[in-house]
Amino acid sequence: MDGLSDALDALAAEDLAPLVGPALLERLRPLLLALNRLAAEIARTVAECEVSGAAGHDGLTTMASWLRGHGHLSGAEAARVVRAGRALGHLPAMAAAFAAGEVTGEQAAVLGTVADPAKLALAAGQGVDLRVVDGLLTGVARRHPQADTARAVRHYADRLDADGPEPDPTEGRRLSITRHADGSVSFRGDLDAVGGEEVATAVEAVVQAGRAAADGRTRTQQQADALAQLADNALAGGGLPVLRTVKPHVVVTVDVEDLADPATGAGAAELASGAVVSAARARWLACDGAVTRIVMGPAGLPLDVGRTQRVVPPHLRRAVERRDRHCVFAGCGAPAWWCDVHHVLEWANGGDTSVENSALLCERHHTKVHHGFRVERGTDGRWRTWRPDGTRIRTGPGNTGPPLTSAA
């Protein structure tokens, strides 16, 4: 690992400015090969981590959740790495090509679906020689781009289960919602034929209802507006499931001065996700929304109910959600609506029901902190987590230093 780090340092120190196009491309090719080889080592290591239950050392259940929280991978990328690692033992040709850098991590994950337990059982029942399939599909991946690899794997899967029962349409549904630094959101997903038809029909109904003679929006803009309107209607209708005793709603936080000031107030308000919007936008939302006053101090809405009440009241939960936003256990990040409000110093041991003594924890990690793990909020406002042995859990690929031990 030290040699690898030294080699990367040497590469990073090279001046690329004097290089022209062909020379840059020649430099890029071996880097891509090295990237694939590193991806193969990551997948191999993750597979061994799964076998040994390594994620449990940091209070997590799966390596996918560990990769999201500690490796800062997206959910989709974490799932791809895990899938590729699990397939290595079943697909030796793919494993060899992956280790040699001849296929990408994304291709390896697609090939890895061949080794899903259900497909392995079907192949065994039909006498399919998996070694032949492995060799053929790996050959496609070596010579062709990602899309062709996926097409070949899908063709194999269709042939494997050509006469099987009608598949569950929900198995192929995927939706990824990505938040960007400016608060905007991108969607990427897949739906089966019926689910896709339902969504498209609902969106089209709103598009057609809002058509106007001088509408200058593009088709894609009309559909995006319609999707947002569908969500707005569902939230306003009050029929969505209640989350942790609270109806789902859009939360925007703004100072009372900015709320009263008619100025635009760019960047003066904040959504629950952390996205920043203008005070004008907050006032627009407040037109048909409920306004809750939260005063972080001794006056106004009480944020501390002392020892007389163990259960956290709704107004205090809103304040804790506003501060923590998600599960505070290191590497987790489960959304607020999955979480309980935990007494850092347990109520039974004299802890107050207050914002200062509260932390958002998902069900799994709420259980963990009652079985040896510990969370604490530092003077800088950041949460830190310790294992039962007193070592601190640190997240992020760059955190390679020795573990920290909590103070007595």
From TrEMBL:
<feature type="region of interest" description="Disordered">
    <location>
        <begin position="384"/>
        <end position="408"/>
    </location>
</feature>
<protein>
    <recommendedName>
        <fullName>HNH nuclease domain-containing protein</fullName>
    </recommendedName>
</protein>
<dbReference type="InterPro" id="IPR003870">
    <property type="entry name" value="DUF222"/>
</dbReference>
<dbReference type="InterPro" id="IPR002711">
    <property type="entry name" value="HNH"/>
</dbReference>
<dbReference type="GO" id="GO:0008270">
    <property type="term" value="F:zinc ion binding"/>
</dbReference>
<feature type="domain" description="HNH nuclease">
    <location>
        <begin position="315"/>
        <end position="367"/>
    </location>
</feature>
<dbReference type="GO" id="GO:0003676">
    <property type="term" value="F:nucleic acid binding"/>
</dbReference>
<dbReference type="Pfam" id="PF02720">
    <property type="entry name" value="DUF222"/>
</dbReference>
<comment type="similarity">
    <text>Belongs to the Rv1128c/1148c/1588c/1702c/1945/3466 family.</text>
</comment>
<dbReference type="GO" id="GO:0004519">
    <property type="term" value="F:endonuclease activity"/>
</dbReference>
<dbReference type="InterPro" id="IPR003615">
    <property type="entry name" value="HNH_nuc"/>
</dbReference>
<dbReference type="Pfam" id="PF01844">
    <property type="entry name" value="HNH"/>
</dbReference>
